[in-house]
Amino acid sequence: MDRVWVFYAIQLTASGYALLRGGAPERLTGLALLLAALSTSVIQRDIPVLFAGMEVGVMVVDLILLVVMIMITLHADRFWPAWVTALHALGTGAHLAKAISPDVIRLVYAVLSAVWSYPIVLLLVIGTVRHSRRIQAQGWDLDWSRQDRTIR
């Protein structure tokens, strides 16, 4: 359980950094990731044996986050959200694997659905650092693709 609290601390730090220093895509992603982590912790609090069966609540949170990340990826003038979306899609796919084959080992299901969280948080931090550097170097950084300038 300690590793879960360590992840929450890392996620909170990365999201806070993105909210303070990031552009709109970084802020939205940081907020979405933080809300997904908090929602998952609330959903899993009362489950006595995690990942023994299909984690429907976690799957719903993951699907909502996947839709949000797809929308950010489609509109952001950044490349890193595509990597975040792809990694999160892999984690969300673990639910599909469990639905197709309920015999998937509990530990495999848990690892496949969660292991992508760490590189996702790292990508958020890298994206935020790169945004900050572009602001320092150029004085500006386009958040959204040119056709989407109305999105703030």
UniProtKB/TrEMBL annotation:
Keyword Transmembrane tagged: yes
Residue ranges of the TM segments: 50-72, 107-126
Keyword match Transmembrane helix: yes
Keywords: Membrane, Transmembrane, Transmembrane helix
Name recorded for this polypeptide: Uncharacterized protein
